[in-house]
Amino acid sequence: MGATFSLGRLAGIRVGVHWSVLVIFVLIALGLAGGRLPDAHPDRPVWSYWLVGLITAVVFFLSLLAHELSHALVARRNGVGSESITLWLLGGVARLKSEAPSPVAELRIAGIGPLVSLLLGIVFALLTVLFGALYGSGLVLEALAWLAAINIMLAVFNALPAAPLDGGRLLRAAVWWRTGSRLRATEVATSAGRGLGWLLVAAGLYLVFMGAVIDGVWLLIIGWFMSAMATAEGGQAKVRELLGSVPVREAMTPDPTTVPAASTVTEFLSGAPWQYRHSAFPVTDPGGGPVGVISVNRAGEVPVAERDSTTIASAMVAVDDLPTAGPDDPLTGLLPALEASPVHQALVLADGRLVGIVTSSDVSRTITWLASAAGSRTPRTPLHPGRSSPASS
Ligand SMILES: [Zn+2]
Question: One biological-process term from Gene Ontology (predicted)?
Answer without folding.
Answer: proteolysis
